[in-house]
Amino acid sequence: MASSSNKSKYHALPSRMFKFFPWTALLFSLIIAILYQSVESDNSFSDIVFHSSAHLPRVLVLTAHPDDESMFFAPTIRALVSRIRTNRIPMSKPASDPVRLSSETTLTSKITYTAHWSPATIPKVLYPYVNEHRITTILTFDDGGISGHPNHKSLPEGIRHLLSHQRYAFAAPPPKLFTLVTRSIPAKYTSILAPIWSKFTLYGIRLLSLEVLAVRIARGLGIELSPLISKPVTHRMPQVLVSGVSDYLAALRAMRQHASQLVWFRWLYVLFSRYMWVNEWVEVPVESLSV
């Protein structure tokens, strides 16, 4: 009897699995559909960097190490490189010349990987390049440095030094500075949940924008219509770029070119990091200082 009961349970297992298969397939299809296409904030990031009417927009992505572009900035580089001139400068020199995501690579100098770089040194290295190429926007790490690496955290300080001191005279208007938002450790490693949540958030904001537009049109026609959301979001929102599947795979291929860096924990990083999928940017106002 026991043997017969075990056999019936064994034969019932495939039917139970098949029962849930359509729902599993549907869920998997929805996830792929959500992840497949890249998306940006409505106030498109590429439009924000078009702030100079006198010159063609030129974006400088300033990284600390050669593999930073793949690990942290890939969603942005993929979004911008096909539309505007994008230059990338790592502040430290690689041992080889791996494949890049960006259209141009200029290496600056060999400097210490573990030290905090002087904010006065970075402008000396960058100023000739920024001025000669008439860079209109600089993208780099924020003060948290994403991972807290001292090299990463040095860069925004150095750029603020460059843009605020009058000793550095620019041939064109000084570039704008945007920094990549550092998230908490739990938020950093949310894998595909990060792009899914970010896309739902962006789509929700778009729906709210449509609601506001509909209310304005109705009131213009003399129809009193109250918005569903009585208090709109007023705090400053970061500019968000979310990669699609092809963008993520491109970043992964680029990262694989840095073979010496792909130790086991970096494999975990490329699998679980939100920065492989999502970039959030805020503009940093810089006031000019007299010397």
UniProtKB/TrEMBL annotation:
<keyword id="KW-0732">Signal</keyword>
<dbReference type="GO" id="GO:0006506">
    <property type="term" value="P:GPI anchor biosynthetic process"/>
</dbReference>
<dbReference type="GO" id="GO:0016020">
    <property type="term" value="C:membrane"/>
</dbReference>
<dbReference type="GO" id="GO:0000225">
    <property type="term" value="F:N-acetylglucosaminylphosphatidylinositol deacetylase activity"/>
</dbReference>
<feature type="signal peptide">
    <location>
        <begin position="1"/>
        <end position="41"/>
    </location>
</feature>
<comment type="similarity">
    <text>Belongs to the PIGL family.</text>
</comment>
<dbReference type="InterPro" id="IPR024078">
    <property type="entry name" value="LmbE-like_dom_sf"/>
</dbReference>
<dbReference type="InterPro" id="IPR003737">
    <property type="entry name" value="GlcNAc_PI_deacetylase-related"/>
</dbReference>
<protein>
    <recommendedName>
        <fullName>N-acetylglucosaminylphosphatidylinositol deacetylase</fullName>
        <ecNumber>3.5.1.89</ecNumber>
    </recommendedName>
</protein>
<dbReference type="GO" id="GO:0005783">
    <property type="term" value="C:endoplasmic reticulum"/>
</dbReference>
